[in-house]
Amino acid sequence: MSLVNLRPPRMEAGSDADNAWQTFSELIAGVLLYGSLGWVGDHFLHTSFLLPTGVLFGLGLVLFLVYKRYVGGQRRSDAE
Questions:
Q1: Is 12 left (phi over 0), alpha (psi -120 to 50) or beta?
Q2: Closest to 27 (Cα-Cα) out of 56, 70, 68
Q3: To 5 degrees, how large is the angle CA 73–CA 16–CA 72?
Q4: Which of 20, 44, 64, 80 is 20 to 30 A from residue 6's alpha carbon, by CA?
């Protein structure tokens, strides 16, 4: 039995649905990663501002990376 047959069917690479899910998962991962780092910093340093700072930094970083991928890349390819 081949494992290839057990995988769910995938949409063609680079489709809009794939891009949307990838962007959504990056947003969630960025907020969770930097938010959890802020929470750990708050816990050990006995502060209360690192968690919201980490969440906002993670969100801003991911939005910047998504912007560079979809908008910044298009401008560069149009100029060539």
A1: beta
A2: 56
A3: 10
A4: 20
As a whole number of angstroms, the distance between CA 65 and CA 30 comes to 11
54 or 10, which is more confident?
54
Q: Hey, what amino acid is at 78?
A: D
Query: What is the C-alpha separation between 43 and 76, in angstroms, rounded?
Result: 43
Average pLDDT over all residues of the chain = 83
Amino acid at 26: E
Each residue's pLDDT tens digit, 39-52: 999 999 999 999 99
State the DSSP string of 14-65: T-HHHHHHHHHHHHHHHHHHHHHHHHHHHHHHT-SSHHHHHHHHHHHHHHHH
User: CA-to-CA distance for 78 and 71, rounded, in angstroms?
Assistant: 11
